[in-house]
Design brief:
heterodimer, A: about 260 residues, alpha+beta, five-stranded antiparallel beta sheet, four-stranded antiparallel beta sheet, B: about 200 residues, mainly alpha, about 0% strand
Chain lengths: ~260, ~200
């Protein structure tokens, strides 16, 4: 057979493990492997390389409905039901030690999706699409920052969860919430950056929550974000005129 | 879900799957859905088909969990091997030709609601493995890298690679062989090969 070297198939090992041989060649190789421990070892070595090749793919976010459809199929056999989305988010947003930044990367994508959905609902597609595009670029850059970290938001209505991704090198952050009730009539959610030492609260903007309780706010700070003690969300009558938090505290996060 | 499930290693989760425990599948999905989906997108260049591959790969792992043997490799390798076969089958079925990765409809993926419960520890591990293999691939001459990628991600045979690149078959064989040898050597140096 072509590719044999001193009775072995070393020339064919690479295309074999890559799946690049024709069917008749595969059959010949496998016949040889049945009898040759040395070539089996070569194949095993190169298979270990191939097991890493799937990780060359650019990471993509997984659509939620794919899990739901899979579990629905399995459910037919088992009769068990999948967990709620709110529960999943809560688990996801728990502080996670060294891997926190990877959680942040995923949450950033989540934030992107919120932005896109929110823009669609507002019906200002073209203008908002431009803003979304810019925001996507900002977030993508932020997620790649090596010094970033994440903290979870506590409080809120039952089932609410959230977190803040912070990039201290560029003083940018993203706040993401899910399962949060709409604010009371004539009220808005306002996000504050907390400086306990100076007793200051800096208004970071309004957090708009959609009908599913989801919202995200992209925050840029002129000062060092790492110097703040945390962030909080309060319910205010008018976020543009309020000088400091006076309404009910809804959720809060501490920067450690 | 029993919180202990999240602490179980893959092989024990596979065993629990074989006993009909859906929560075990759910945890494994958290750990590997993202890498499986990304891998499928890379091959089929279509997020909707990639979703089908993702679901089918996990469905098969569920159905065949009783036959999974740890000594044949770890769960991730097994699952990704299933994914590769399914995705390449899709490519061949649709007779898609090689495309650039940037032709993927990424916006389409982003517009759908994202599953946020990718396991954090596994995501970190995936990042580490991604770094290892990318670094190794970056050290290959472009021609060798291209030949390997066309075979593995596009499902082309050596002859098809040669025809696609308009190169002699012998040249492609050499590039593939030398490229894989170099990858093995580099990854061995990095102690990156997974046992």
């Amino acid at each position: 057979m072509a590719g044999y070297e001193e009775g072995h198939i070393s020339e064919l090992v690479a295309p074999y493990v890559l799946g690049a041989l024709e069917p008749d060649e595969v059959e010949q190789v496998e016949t040889h492997l049945d009898q040759c421990p040395m070539c089996r070892e070569l194949v095993e070595e190169q298979r270990q390389v191939v097991t890493l090749m799937p990780y060359l793919a650019e990471p993509h976010s997984v659509p939620l409905h794919a899990r739901e459809q899979l579990l629905a199929r399995v459910q037919e056999e088992s009769g068990q039901s999948p967990q709620s989305r709110a529960h999943r988010l809560k688990v996801f947003l728990l502080p996670s030690g060294r891997a926190g930044w990877m959680a942040a990367a995923t949450a950033a994508v989540l934030a992107l999706v919120f932005a896109v959905n929110s823009f669609q609902m507002q019906g200002e597609m073209e203008k908002q699409a431009e803003e979304a595009s810019e925001e996507r670029a900002n977030i993508a850059e932020m997620v790649q920052s090596p010094g970033g970290w994440m903290t979870s938001l506590e409080g809120g209505s039952s089932g609410a969860g959230g977190g803040i991704i912070v990039d201290p090198t560029t003083n940018r952050a993203i706040m993401v919430v899910d399962g949060l009730d709409q604010p009371s009539d004539d009220h808005e959610y306002v996000v504050w950056m907390v400086d306990e030492a100076n007793g200051d609260h800096i208004n970071a903007g309004e957090l708009v929550v959609d009908e599913d309780g989801r919202g995200q706010l992209y925050i840029t700070s002129s000062g060092a974000l790492a110097n703040y003690d945390g962030m909080l969300i309060t319910e205010e009558v008018d976020q543009e005129t309020v000088a400091g938090p006076t309404g009910n505290q809804v959720m809060a996060a501490t920067f450690e | 879900m029993d919180a202990d499930f999240r602490d179980l290693p893959d092989d024990q989760l596979v065993s629990r799957m074989s006993q009909g425990e859906v929560d075990a599948l759910d945890v494994l999905y958290d750990r590997y859905a993202r890498v499986v989906f990304s891998f499928a997108v890379r091959i089929v260049h279509d997020s909707r088909i990639a979703e089908e591959v993702l679901q089918e790969a996990f469905m098969r792992s569920w159905q065949q969990s009783g036959r999974f043997e740890l000594n044949r490799g770890n769960f991730a390798s097994w699952l990704l091997s299933i994914t590769h076969n399914l995705a390449i089958d899709e490519v061949r079925k649709s007779q898609r030709r090689p495309q650039k990765a940037d032709m993927v409809d990424i916006i389409d993926v982003l517009r759908s609601e994202v599953d946020t419960t990718v396991n954090i520890e596994e995501a970190a591990e995936a990042t580490e493995l991604r770094g290892l293999i990318r670094d190794a691939m970056d050290r290959l001459p472009e021609a060798q890298r291209r030949a390997i990628e066309l075979a593995y991600f596009e499902g082309l045979s050596q002859r098809e690679v040669a025809a696609f690149l308009n190169e002699p078959l012998g040249t492609i064989k050499t590039r593939m062989r030398l490229g894989m040898q170099k990858l093995k050597d580099v990854l061995s140096e990095q102690e990156g090969l997974q046992s």
